Amino acid sequence: MTIKDIQAFLDHNGLGEMIAKLHDAAPKSFGAGDAEAFARMKLILRVLDLPAASASDLLRTIEKFTTDEEPL
What we know:
This protein is mainly alpha-helical.
């Protein structure tokens, strides 16, 4: 998956403008640089493509790495 693939997906689904607004509001949430931001966007798209059961399993795994006191 390339940056162009991500941009095409976001634009096709009307999400490009929303992601840009989120980035403008909280740029550090996307990483310190382009490589980190790209990795986060790629991860988001991969998760969106997962079957529901796999997404639930992945969420439980990811929650083990977070510092939140309450799982989502």
